[in-house]
Amino acid sequence: MYVYLRRCFPALLLLVAGLVWVSVGICNELPVVNTAISDDETEVNSIERQLKMALEMSDTTRAYQSIKEGLARSAQIGNEVLVFRAHLALGRAAYSCGNYSKALTSFDVALEMAISSKNWGGVSEAFYFKALVYDKLNNEAKLLSSIRGSAEYIDDIRNDSLSLVVSSYIGRVFFNHRQFKSAYEISLKGLSFCKTDKQTAQKANFLNFLGAVCDEWGLLLPALEFYQKSEIEARKSGDVSLLSMAYNNTGLLYKKLHRYEEALGYLNKSLAIDRKLNDTVGLSGVYNNLGILWLEKGAYNKALMYMQLSYNLVKSSGDSSLISTAYNNFGDIYFAMGKVKQAYFYANLSVEIDQRGHFEPDLSRSLQTRARILTSYGRYNEALSDFQKSEKLCLSNRLTEDLAELYKEMSNLYHSIGNHALAFDYLQKNNAFLDTIFNERLLNQSVWMSVEKSMVEKQNEIEGLRVESRQNEQELVQKQQLIFRQKIFQHSLILAIVIAVVFMVLLIRSLRRIKLFTMKLRLQNVDIDHQKMQLQEAIEKGKEADRLKDNFLATMNHELRTPLNGIIGFAEILENEVADELHKEMAQSINQSGSRLMTTLNGLLNLSQVERNMVEVNYTIFSLTEMVITVVDRHRREAKDKGLELSLQLPGNPIRVSSDETLIERVIDNLVDNAIKYTIVGSIVVSVSDYKSALGYQAIVKVKDTGIGIDTENLELIFQQFRQVSEGLVREFEGTGLGLSLCRSYLTLLGGDLKVSSRKGGGSEFTAIMSALWEDVEKPQGRFVRRQLSSEGLPTQDGDLRLVLLVEDDDINREFALYTLSGHYNVVVATTAPMAISLAEKYHFEALLLDINLGREMSGVEVLQAIREMEGYQAVPATAVTANALKGERERLLKRGFNYYLPKPYSRKELLALMKLMLPD
Fold first, then answer.
1. What is the DSSP string of 161-221?
2. Pairwise CA distance, residues 826 & 98, whole Å
3. What is the pLDDT of residue 856?
4. How confident is the model at residue 1 (pLDDT cuts 50, 70, 90)?
5. Alpha carbons 32 and 99: distance in angstroms, whole number
6. From its phi and psi, is residue 761 left (phi > 0), alpha (psi between -120 and 50) or beta?
7. Which of 141, 176, 764, 899 has the smallest number of Cβ neighbours within 10 A?
8. Which of these, 218, 227, 225, 230, lies nearest to 249 by C-alpha position?
């Protein structure tokens, strides 16, 4: 770099000399400015600095005293503008101290001075500061009077930054008082004050607020247009929080228009931004909106999931109003799901919180929710009382749309009671309010159109004046430019020659370097192309490997499950029916080996689902305490056989969680099984507890053993797939090494975690952490019993048994099914597809059990389609029996015409329970 500059130094010297020459020539033609400043101007500048510094002081007492001194100095020199500014500053200082009476006195003096001197911009400022005081004093009448005065003269404020602040505040006050026309007009003015490209964030804020005004005003299409413009400006400004707000508001508006897919898209965009920013307030709002959207679409489980996520965030904020809203939404969801008791519980909580906090609009809605639930219970008097209370709140808070919905619900209530006259009266009230709402929207539309027209006319008038002013300015500038160009033409010509010479020299040197750089770049491009080809080949190989893996899993799933069904089934039969103890032990060994192989196969399939993010999560509310009791009881015999003590420690009250019951049970079962497996002597303690952390209310399940323990450096190794502390042919314990990896994956998916503490030879303690549903309020008492399939209570047939067709080509599976169903049903067997179709033509079967894989002739799906076309078989229940238990197979077969789905291997209880569903008594 130094050598390059040294070589270019002569050319640069010539360029500098030329620029100096031009500068001297231009400066000689410019007028001489008198730089002398009067003493009065110095004093004014000093006072202005004093007032500014005083307003920035943290010590309010010192600030107030300094401003009073500045006011005295301003009055002494007789500068009215400065005296006006001093009075405003004095009022602001008193406002900061909380002395509102002094603040109002100073602002009134400033207002009188501004009016007398016709300083209309100052009038707007004084009214604005008075409005701030009245806002603190909760004087609604004087607050509205002050902001109207400020709005009238806001165009005369010469400070654009202050104009933005004032217009924003005035707009929000009008909005809060539901004066949407005034809010719309002042916000349009505020938008016009954003004149520079650096004010895109302010533009986005004003556009978003205009959308909110139109939304509440009932002008949905203009609101959508403003939200979309706000999105554009937010993207220009780079402020992702503003962009998230625009996405959220657009999504809510599309939901109002019942365009749910578009609404879902925008809400998910907002959710992604808030997650990236870790904005808990934004996240709770978006989760709540998504929950309401899915509720309206009828997807209640999704609605419940998103509402639970919103509640978890709102609960930590401590905002009673938001917590009440969440409880009310829970009530709506559970009521829609038909779970009336849970709906009433949440609605009642919402009403209690709103009553304590005096949240009247929220209380009106929560009372309506509780009243609807009470109506469904048949508790009409209590429901009527809630409806009447809600009616008073709607009338006092002007909640017109809520009142229309309330009258509709009250009409339904009186209709249920049998008082049809009152039901008709309230239905008429509902219709009258709907007409009122419709007419108000039409009126709002006409008012908005008139405002738009007047604003356009005013804008055209202002634009005309601006055009005329610009034309005059352009003429003056053109004359000045013509004279200026004539003066500098000769200097520019010389400068151009010098620059051209310097440029040619530099160009020649640059061309040489560019030639060398181009050669190097071509060589690099060749290497890059070669690397791209290698990368593409690697991608193709990866895709082929994924395809082969899917095919392998599907094939092995079928080929292993089919023989396992026969092995486990007949082992179960032999274990129950063989009298010889030695043979019974052999049958038990066969059954245990088959179950172990089945566990390995399920682990591989579960691992594949986790890796491909295909695990389905079904949230339900269940008792974690009851589940742990069930799992521990399941392992007591195994622990007893090894001589281990298995104990259980439970909390005083049951703990309930909202999660996937199946996945949580797998985790607890695996942890207890591992503890028994790796403990030679000693004990295992399973404990259930709960605690409140920074993340909310959580449930804890600990499994502590006195087993072999784990070295500290190997603690994370046990959570890796196919890894154990002892590996290879000489390992001490059998297993695939998938259990703990799947447990952590499941808990992470459900918002929890799995931790371990251990030391070699000193035992281990595994801790499963998950979110609990409630804290300390009104914990439910009692035990929660989960439903299980059972074959008990099957009817005994005295006469002819019901006719069932079994289509199965595997000998072992066929014999197992026949053995299980004999004595309960009259089973006819077909081993091929043509035989099944022939038998269906000859006899009329009441139920069909069809194996899907029947060889190359026809599949079980094709057999079902052929039988369905026969007369009398359209409504006969049919079950698909298959060894393909991969994700999506059940849904595919049900769409193809089957009524039920039975994956292999299955037990006798499962088969008999299925038959009871197909052929009830």
1. HHHHHHHHHHHHHHHHTT-HHHHHHHHHHHHHT--SGGGHHHHHHHHHHHHHHHHHHT-HH
2. 91
3. 65
4. very low
5. 51
6. left
7. 141
8. 227
**DSSP codes, 790-840:** --TTPPPPSSPPPEEEEE---HHHHHHHHHHHBTTBEEEEESSHHHHHHHH
Q: Minimal CA–CA distance to 571: which of 851, 910, 908? A: 908
Residues 6+ apart with CB under 8 A from 728: none
Order across the sheet with 878-882: list the strands: 826-830, 803-807, 847-851, 878-882, 900-903
816 vs 597: CA distance, rounded Å = 19
Q: 269 near 247, Cβ under 8 Å?
A: yes
Q: Which of 238, 239, 171 is nearest to 211 (CA)?
A: 171
Kindly write down the DSSP assignment for every residue of 486-538, as one continuous string: HHHHHHHHHHHHHHHHHHHHHHHHHHHHHHHHHHHHHHHHHHHHHHHHHHHHH
- CA–CA dist 703, 398 (Å, integer): 58
Report yes or no: 688 and 700 within 8 Å, Cβ to Cβ. yes
Which has the closest alpha carbon to 862: 846, 847, 878, 876?
Answer: 878
Closest CA to 90 of 124, 129, 128, 118: 129
> Buried b vs exposed e over 269-279: b needs ≥16 C-beta within 10 Å?
bbbebbeeeeb
Q: In whole angstroms, how far apart are CA 682 and each of 152, 642, 673, 709, 731?
A: 85, 10, 15, 13, 22
Spatial distance between the Cα atoms of 97 and 95, rounded to a whole number of angstroms: 5
Q: Can you tell me the distance from the alpha carbon of 589 to that of 602, in angstroms, rounded to the nearest whole number?
A: 20
8 A C-beta contact, residue 171 and residue 216: no
For β-strands 878-882 and 847-851, DSSP reports them as parallel
* DSSP per-residue string spanning 837-886: HHHHHHS--SEEEEES---SS--HHHHHHHHHTSTT-SS--EEEEES---
Cis peptide before 780, with omega less than 30 degrees from 0? no
pLDDT, tens digit, for every residue of 747-768? 887 778 888 888 887 788 989 9
Give the separation between CA 632 and CA 650, rounded to whole angstroms. Answer: 12
In the chain, what is the greatest distance between 2 CA atoms, to the nearest angstrom?
A: 125
pTM over 0.85: no
| CA 160, 164, 170, 175 torsion-angle sign | positive
Rounded Cα distance, 93 and 56, in Å: 10
Buried b / exposed e along 640-676 (16+ C-beta atoms within 10 A):
eeeebebebeeeeebbbbbbbbebbbbbbbbbbbbbb
| DSSP characters over 569-626 | HHHHHHHHH---HHHHHHHHHHHHHHHHHHHHHHHHHHHHHHHTT------EEEEHHH
Phi, psi of 885 (to 5 degrees): -110, 25
Q: State residue 878's pLDDT score.
A: 95
Residues in Cβ contact with 810 at an 8 Å cutoff, skipping those fewer than 6 apart: 562, 566, 851
Rounded to 5 degrees, φ, ψ at 311 are -65, -40
Q: How many angstroms from the chain centroid is the CA of residue 876?
A: 44
Pair 184, 447: CB distance under 8 Å = no
Backbone φ/ψ region at 858: left (φ over 0), alpha (ψ -120 to 50), beta: beta
DSSP, collapsed to helix, strand or coil, labels residue 29 as helix
- At residue 777, the pLDDT reads 36
Task: Tell how strand 826-830 and strand 803-807 pair up.
Answer: parallel
Stronger pLDDT, 361 or 800, i.e. the higher one: 361
862 is written with which tokens?
A: 């094709």
5 burial via Cβ count (<10 Å: 0-12, 13-18, 19+): exposed
Residue in this structure with the two tokens 């409630």, named with its chain if needed: 774
Picking from 387, 395, 342, 338, the residue whose alpha carbon sits closest to that of residue 366 is: 387
Identify whether the C-beta of residue 759 lies closer than 8 Å to the C-beta of residue 767: no
